[in-house]
Design goal:
- The protein starts with a helix and ends with a helix.
- The chain has 2 domains: 30 residues; 97 residues, Substrate Binding Domain Of Dnak, Chain:A, Domain 2 (Up-down Bundle).
- 89% of the residues lie in helices and 0% in strands.
- Helix 2 packs antiparallel against helix 4, helix 2 runs parallel beside helix 5 and helix 4 runs antiparallel to helix 5.
- The chain is built from 5 helices and no strands.
- The longest helix is centred in the C-terminal third of the chain and has 49 residues.
- By secondary structure, it is mainly alpha-helical.
């Protein structure tokens, strides 16, 4: 083995060590505030499910779930910035799903009430004759 080949191998090995350790050095610790954001996002998702958001706002529920999964992946790296951002987006989508589901449920109730009102009016008119 020549000296040049030896130094190339050593250089490659050192380069790999630098890359590995630079990733470790860049790894960020997830703060308690960020953990709370993640917990809040899961709570918002549960609140959305209680008002039937899967029925009334399935796309927003899917987005919330996708961002919770992204946050979980970022936690395992650890990527504190990505974890926090994904947690906040998950919470926002879950809250949007809840609000949308509540609105759609109210619209459904309003439509049913309107239908009942129209039937009552029709019955009154028929009784007048």
């Amino acid at each position: 083995m020549s000296a040049k080949s030896f130094f190339l191998r050593i250089s490659l090995f050192l380069l790999i060590l630098v890359v590995v350790f630079s990733d470790v050095a860049r790894a960020e610790n997830i703060t308690p505030t960020q953990e709370q954001e993640f917990t809040d996002a899961k709570g918002a998702l549960e609140a959305a499910r209680k008002v039937q958001a899967e029925k009334f706002a399935p796309s927003y529920i899917k987005q919330a779930l996708d961002f919770l999964n992204t946050a979980s992946s970022a936690r395992s790296i650890p990527d504190a910035e990505g974890f926090g951002r994904a947690s906040r987006l998950a919470r926002a989508y879950a809250e949007l799903a809840k609000a949308s589901a509540e609105l759609n449920a109210d619209v459904e109730i309003l439509a049913t009430t309107q239908e009942t009102l129209l039937k009552a009016k029709a019955e009154i008119e028929s009784l007048k004759k």
